[in-house]
Known about the structure:
By secondary structure, the chain is of the alpha/beta class. Helix content is about 40%, strand content about 5%. Strands 1-6-5-4-2-3 form a six-stranded mixed sheet, sandwiched between helices. Helix 8 (about 210-220) links the parallel strand 2 (about 200-205) and strand 3 (about 225-230).
Amino acid sequence: xxxxxxxxxxxxxxxxxxxxxxxxxxxxxxxxxxxxxxxxxxxxxxxxxxxxxxxxxxxxxxxxxxxxxxxxxxxxxxxxxxxxxxxxxxxxxxxxxxxxxxxxxxxxxxxxxxxxxxxxxxxxxxxxxxxxxxxxxxxxxxxxxxxxxxxxxxxxxxxxxxxxxxxxxxxxxxxxxxxxxxxxxxxxxxxxxxxxxxxxxxxxxxxxxxxxxxxxxxxxxxxxxxxxxxxxxxxxxxxxxxxxxxxxxxxxxxxxxxxxxxxxxxxxxxxxxxxxxxxxxxxxxxxxxxxxxxxxxxxxxxxxxxxxxxxxxxxxxxxxxxxxxxxxxxxxxxxxxxxxxxxxxxxxxx
Length: 350
């Protein structure tokens, strides 16, 4: 990918008068690059609420669909970019473009429309239509605006890095973005209160996200009186959600990573219908689970290796644990009790 060289017009020929037929335009519900399908009318953005009350980003919705609280967008290139998309009802193809722009916020102001189309995996006319949907005359006007509101930040010279080092650098960038988003701790604090108050607390994660759910549940069980891990799908999954609701559960935590299993989306929809408040850690505010989540906390995954890496989602899970402990008054006592019993049992090698 080209980065900070200023290619003012390269590749922007016909940016404002493209024909609709060329390229590989994405339709409603077509598969995303990471394998997840975006349904029409899903929510997007950072902390915004859609008209039907679906939640997205680092934010939550109230029963009437309004956003609760005054959630600030982080003052970073990605945060400023994401604020540009707030309040927009975008098509699935346009959400795909927006997601790609947020993921590559430092480079986007210097990309031509053709290069952005290649980055997002859409047609070049789709990029032009996207710019118009945002209220600009065409892509050149959008790019000029991006250079003013989301200037590139100095980046490390990674040209000499091998593919393994580049994957690590990409994860470091994901963690930096997560740190910028956490500048506003209120959504995570809200999630911590919801999880702490739920007795029992079901924790869902299937396939690629199963390890994230297991790790959270393992540590949460040391401070929370009743944690129920849901890491296997099948016909029993809804039964276990029903059992948790009958036992008094009020919230469910889900880890959702690409490729997103349809079963996870279905399970979250079922949980919401059963009355549970759904808190989701996902790879993006544009993930398909957004439409069935009350509070979605995004943390990007790395895609530079054959299999995705999930350092940021894992760290966000630990941050959620910390927030939950803050709302469990006996958390410290439970930890001390566990340590005392572990010492008696000789559980760990010192």
